[in-house]
Design brief:
With 238 residues, the protein is mostly helical. It has a single domain, classed as Up-down Bundle (Heme Oxygenase, Chain A).
């Protein structure tokens, strides 16, 4: 039986994907405007989300459906721990907690893991395929915007155990297309993936306030410098 789930997910989440890209934080990120405090808050929340998702995937690694897409080399928890140590210091565990949007996301992951484990396919697809697809581009943007060097602060985007990301994505999608599920289950997974996109959007929307404040401060600093230069020029002219 072939579910063609990867194809259904790609088509069925197009609108959600576009909406997520149009959240203020994401739009600014893609344009190269990345504020470090907002970014580290994102890393913090992703740590809690991935920890929950990877714990549940591990718990169900023998599940007849989830076992087909159980790829530990995708796990992001350890790489996020490296980034948290960079942004918060060695005592990062004592400084972080999940935001309301992250808590909601985690609760949903735990809920479906208990009631309908096959729905974890949707959460895995939404996060990991996105990480693999745009990870290197986002890594470059983050490095340039925050003046990061030597891989510091961007371990999240490094898949050390995957040599060929393009080939791996093809393998992953084929595994999803071959999942032994019926059309009704496939449709439910697509619905869950759209819900996962919505939860990711809430994570991004929480960061909008910090980003707007940071951009406002940047503009204020720029205007202040221009005024200072203008005063100096006048004084020189006199």
């Amino acid at each position: 039986m072939s579910s063609n789930l990867a194809t259904k997910l790609r088509e069925g989440t197009k609108k959600s994907h576009t909406m997520a890209e149009n959240v203020g934080f994401v739009k600014c990120f893609l344009k190269g405007v990345v504020e470090k405090n907002s970014y580290r808050n994102l890393v913090k929340n992703l740590y809690f989300v991935y920890s929950a998702m990877e714990e549940e995937m591990e718990r169900h690694r023998q599940h007849p459906i989830l076992s087909k897409i159980y790829f530990p080399q995708l796990n992001r928890k350890k790489s996020l721990e490296q980034d948290l140590a960079y942004y918060y210091g060695t005592n990062w565990r004592e400084q972080i907690s999940a935001s309301p949007a992250a808590e909601e996301y985690i609760q949903r992951i735990r809920e479906v893991s208990t009631s309908a484990p096959e729905m974890l396919v949707a959460h895995s697809y939404t996060r990991y395929l996105g990480d693999l697809s745009g990870g290197q581009i986002l890594k470059g943007i983050a490095q340039r915007a925050m003046n990061l060097t030597d891989g510091q602060g961007t371990a999240f985007y490094e898949f050390q155990e995957i040599e060929d990301e393009k080939a791996f994505k093809a393998t992953y999608r084929q595994a999803m297309n071959d999942l032994p599920i019926d059309d009704a289950t496939a449709d439910k997974i697509v619905d869950e993936a759209n819900d996962a996109f919505a939860m990711n959007m809430k994570l991004f929307q929480e960061l909008n306030g910090n980003l707007i404040k940071a951009i406002g401060q940047m503009l204020f600093n720029t205007l202040t410098r221009k005024r200072s230069r203008g005063s100096t020029d006048l004084a020189t002219a006199e």
